[in-house]
Amino acid sequence: MTRRYSFGAVPLESGVTRFRLWAPSAPEGLALEVEGHSPIPLRPDADGFVEADVDCPPGARYRYRLDAATTIPDPASRLQDGDVHGDSIVVAPGAYDWRHPGWTGRPWEETVLYEVHAGLAGGYAGLLARLPDLASMGITMLELMPIADFPGERNWGYDGVLPYAPDTAYGTPDELKRLIDSAHGLGMSVMLDVVYNHFGPDGNYLPRYAAPFFRADVDTPWGDAIDFRQPAVSRFFKENALYWLTEYRFDGLRLDAVHAITGHEWLHELAGFVREGVSAERNVHLVLENDDNRASLLQGDFDAQWNDDAHHVLHHLLTGETRGYYADYCEAPAQALARCLAEGWLYQGQPSPYRGGLARGEPCATLPPTAFVLFLQNHDQTGNRARGERLASLVDSRQRLRAAVALQLLAPQIPLIFMGEESGARAPFLYFTSHADPALARAVREGRQREFSAFPEFAGDAPAAQLPDPNDPATYDASNPWAGAEDADEWMRDYAALLQLRARLISPRLAGATSLGAAAIGERSVFARWELADGARLTVYANLGPERQAVPPALQSGPDLYATLLFESLAGGRDALAHGELCPDCTVWLLEEAA
Question: What stretch of H or E contains 243?
Fold first, then answer.
């Protein structure tokens, strides 16, 4: 079935292509130009759309002319001929011959996420070649950083301006579909990171002909906010979400920084639109990044949210860092971690000192553990550091990092692995761009330098204080996580062993799992317990400090003495626990089957 979209160039069954553009503030004389045709007038309607039916095949190049000096791409272009300022291309939907059309995805509880930048992985073809190893390790869902067309060849993806067009820097649309199709053949789902809170700084022509797309009364870090109150704007992004899930058969979407979308009502609408538009047989998952910690969004509409709170307290415990937002997590960090393990977020409505005392979050203790995505690293938390250091370079104890990995990968929350951490990568993940406009490249470079100038080590003009230039190709090249760490094999064995345990003994019992509570043990250690769906009890003791820690008698007694050792990150960890102590830098997991 060919889905009828409201935007873009859509080939019809009659053989013509319908071109449709929302242009409520376009100048007089707006025209469509299709290769092989004279300029084509556009029919307006009462809702601000203009359209034309043209006898042209898939593959035809086209553009819109605003005036004698300006042509623009289709904002709903499915493919670009060149970069974001070039011509758009008519694409036939449904042309790819899927090898695994019966794939319906995997239940959310089975998810182990692997976040990856397609370009650094070698494009879609290079990433496809890595799939067998990832599947063998235990990854069940690949998560692609944004791929919507962005300026130049190198970008994180958050500067995209054409949300329907996969950037050809990584390969062709069919190569992207082949990547997804091949992942399905290996039993892996694929999630896409989408950006609905802003457009990038280069190539966004919407203000020239669709000024109501934005609202000047709400400011964001990127300028005027997108106005989701406009029905056409709302539908533009709703259909975009459905487009990626149906045309490309992605199994889920991660919505970037939705706290920058004014009002959460539209997010509820989006989720309903998507779930109504996708076959009920498919397992399609929607995940949020949301600094507001809105539990109300996770009560049916969205599957999960990235758990920044848990990351921040773990990062503080691992590195000792206290600056910036880590200041909110350095007071009683073991208690903070215990709350994150038992309930999800630390901030559930209490004031945040880092945010000037503003209340943050909603109560979330009634949500299941799988409503939270748990990570030690991701593109934001690594790449938004001035020099992009990874934990393998920041944590001074390998055993401590190994203990944290064991805590993350076996916890009932959904684990996310950032590309390269499974092999102990030490190459930084830096912020990179490839802006062709020298003035924009300079503004980005200087703006990033100013962002970190409050830290003494990055203030002033000394060479040591200067950040890597985002637009320098060497910055991109330095971010390759597959350069090979000396202990890569050892790390990969650890990850594979932990993920195999998770797949065999934990994931099948997560639907319906509940927390039985957690507690701090001293300043750097925690205890937590969950009841799994079949009544089994899963218990963790984790010490992320360099000293032995006595375990209070109240946390030693009970069934733990008879539970099976699931995993110990340090040999002898279970034996020490039997004597009432936690070894330094050690995590111990126990499993007691139901009677």
Answer: helix 231-246
Structure confidence at residue 457 (pLDDT): 86
Mean of the per-residue pLDDT values of the chain: 95
> DSSP state, 467?
P
Residues 6 or more apart whose CB falls under 8 angstroms from that of 167 comprise 147, 148, 149, 150, 155, 157, 160
Catalytic residue among 289, 494, 581, 592: 289
> Which of 293, 297, 215 is closest to 264 using CA atoms?
297
**Within 28-146, where are the H helices?**
123-137
Nearest CA to 515 out of 334, 337, 299, 342 is that of: 342
Q: Kind and range of the H or E element at 30? A: none
Q: Is the dihedral of CA 123, 58, 241, 470 positive or negative?
A: positive
Task: Tell me, yes or no, if 74 is annotated catalytic.
Answer: no
Comparing CA positions, the residue from 237, 115, 112, 253 lying closest to residue 192 is 253
Q: The pTM is what? A: 0.97
Strand order of the β-sheet with 17-22 is 8-11, 17-22, 49-54, 43-44
The percent helix, strand, coil of the chain (3-state, each to 5) is 35, 20, 45
> How far are the Cα atoms of 385, 429, 448, 472, 485 from residue 466, in angstroms, in the given order?
13, 16, 10, 13, 26
**Span 127-176, pLDDT tens digits:** 999 999 999 999 999 999 999 999 999 999 999 999 999 999 999 999 99
Q: How far is CA 561 from CA 179, 505, 557, 591, in A?
A: 47, 19, 7, 11
* Residue whose pair of structure tokens reads 């539908």 in the numeric block: 235
Query: 10 Å Cβ neighbour count for 512?
Result: 12
Question: Shortest CA distance to 82 belongs to which of 168, 164, 156?
Answer: 168
Furthest CA-CA distance within the chain: 85
pLDDT band at 544 (very low <50, low <70, confident <90, very high): very high
The answer to whether 334 and 520 are in contact (CB under 8 A) is yes
Report how far residue 80's alpha carbon sits from residue 74's, in angstroms, rounded to the nearest whole number.
9
How many angstroms separate the CA atoms of 17 and 27, rounded?
24
Report the run of H or E that residue 382 belongs to, with start and end: helix 379-383
Set 256, 494, 585, 592: catalytic member: 256
What tokens were used for 171? Answer: 């390969």
Does residue 53 sit in helix, strand or coil?
A: strand
Between residues 328 and 555, which one has the greater pLDDT? 328
Q: Is there a catalytic annotation at residue 256?
A: yes
Q: Please tell me the distance from the alpha carbon of residue 136 to that of residue 121, in angstroms, as a whole number.
A: 18
